[in-house]
Amino acid sequence: MNCIECQENISPYLDGELNEVRAADMRAHLSICAGCAKICEDFSVILDTCRENVPSEIIPPNSQALWCRINNLIESEIKPEIIPEQPKKGLFSRGWNLTFSQAGAGVLAIALISSLLTVVGIRNYFEPSREDFTSRSNASQTTLEKFFSKIGLSDTPQQARERRIKEQQEAIAYWTKRVQERRGQWDVRMRDAFDRNLNMIDESVSEYTIILQENPDDDLTGEMLDTVLTDKMDLLREFSDL
Amino acid sequence: MARVLKNRFFIILAGKTTILLLLSVVFFFAPSDISAQRRFSKTYPATRSVRLKLSNRDGMVTVEGWNRPEVQIQAYLETPATSVNPRVVDGTIYIDMVKENYGRGEVGGVNFTIRVPRDASVDIETKVGNLSVSNVNGGLVSARISTNGDITLTNISAKVVNAENGIGNIFFDGDLQESGSYRFRSMSGDINLRIPFNSSFKLTATAPSTRSINLGYFSSEDLRFVSDGRRVTGQVRDGASFLTVTNQRGSITFLRR
User: Fold this and answer.
1) What is the ipTM of this complex?
2) How would you label A2-27 residue by residue, b for 16+ Cβ within 10 Å and e otherwise?
3) What are the pLDDT digits (tens) for B225-234?
4) Scanning every residue of chain B, which has its alpha carbon at the shortest distance from the alpha carbon of A220?
5) Total domains present in chain A
6) Are A222 and A137 in contact (CB under 8 A)?
7) Based on the domain organization, do A119 and A234 belong to the same domain?
8) Residues B78-89: pLDDT tens digits?
9) pLDDT score at A175
10) Predicted local confidence at residue A96, as pLDDT
11) Domain assignment of residue A190, given as a range
12) Closest CB from A194, A204, A234 relative to B248
C-alpha cells in the first residue's frame, strides 16, 4: 500500500468499515509511514472529540439535508461554477479592436452627423427668413433641403408656407379684434382710408392664394403673398394704436 | 314827450355802441387759444447732420431743404384742440402726432411745412395724406404712408432712400450713391423713378399683377425679365447701389434724368 491509498482509506479505517485484509495493510503502512500515521492520528482525535462533545441540541432536525448543503458549498468553493460564455453578437462583438479604415469611417460619420445636427439646429434657432418660408418651392430647394425634408428634419416648402400663413392669419385675427375696438374713435376720412387699403390688400391676398392653389411652386407669388399678409398685419397693428 | 323818448333812444344806442366797441377791443388784444392752435410755428437751431422724425396722423407733410442751419416747423391744424409738441433729443427733432393725440376723438388733419438744412436726414410718415421731400442730400430720406397718399421725392441725394405707401403714386427724382440702398414699395399706384443716365445699380423690380415694368433708357441685356415678366433682375453698369422696387397692383417706370 502506498501513501495515497492509505490516506484515502483513513476514514473507513477509523470507522471500522474495511475488511480484515485491507485493515491489515493499513496498519502495516501506518507502522512504517510517519506522515500517514500523523494524519490518521489527527483524524482519530477529531472523531473522538466529535463523538464525546457534540451536544444533542445543536443537531439539526434534518442532518442529511444540512450535510448536502455543506457539501454543495464546499464543492462550489473548490470548483467554482464556470458560466459558459455566450458568443457576442453585433457591431461590437470584437470590442474596440477597430482597423484604421474603420476608425476613420467612424470619425467621418460622427463629423457628418454633427454637421447635419448643427445645420438643423442653427436653422431652427434663427427665425427663418421670408425666403425660407414662402418663396421656396420644390424647384428651388437645394439637395440638402430636399434631404432634410425627406427625412422629416425640416418642412417642405409647401408645409413651411402653410405654417407661416397660418401664423400670420392668427396675428391678423388678433389685430383685427383690436382695431374693431378702436375704430369708433377715428374720423370718417381715417375709416375710409383704412377700409380702402384693407380691401385692396385682401384682393391681392385672394389673387395670390388662387394662383398658389393652381401652381404651388410659384416662388414669386409665394413671396408676394407673404408680403401682402405682412402689410395687412402692419396696417392693422398701426391702426390699433390710433 | 316825443323829445324825451328820442333822447332816451339815443342814450341807449350810444351805450350799446360803446359796449360793442369795448368788447371788440378786448377780444382783439386778448390772447386767444383758438387762433393760436390753428397755426403752429417754431424754429430750432440745427446741429450738424440734424435728423427730423415726424409721425403724422392725417394731413400733408412738405419738407424742403434750405441753406440755413436751422429747422423751421410750421403746422396748420384743422382742429384747434390738436396738440403739436416737438421734442429735440440728441440732434433729432421728434414730432409724434399719433402719441401726442392718442385717445382724443376729433384730431383732424394737420398740414406740416418743414424746412431743414440740406444735409439733414428726414424720416417722415403719416397714416393718411401726401408726403413731399425736396432738395435734401443727407444720409437718409424715408417717407411712408400707411394708407392713401402720394409720395414725391425731388432733388434727393441720399445714401438710403425708402418710400412706401398703400394707394397712391410714388415719384423719385434723385441720385443713386455708391453702395446706397433705395427701396420703393406701393400697393396700388404708379412708381416713377427719375435717375441720372449714368446710374449704377443692382435692380429687383416686381410688378406681379400688372407686369408693367418699363425700363426705358436703362433697358439692357444685363436686366432680364423673370417669372413670366412679373419681375426684372440684374444690374446696370457696375451695380454699385441696390434698387428694390415692388408695386403690387401698379406700374414701375424708369426715367432718364
Assistant:
1) 0.82
2) eeeebbebbeebbeeeeeeeeeebbe
3) 999 999 999 9
4) B227
5) 2
6) yes
7) yes
8) 988 888 999 999
9) 95
10) 64
11) 112-240
12) A204
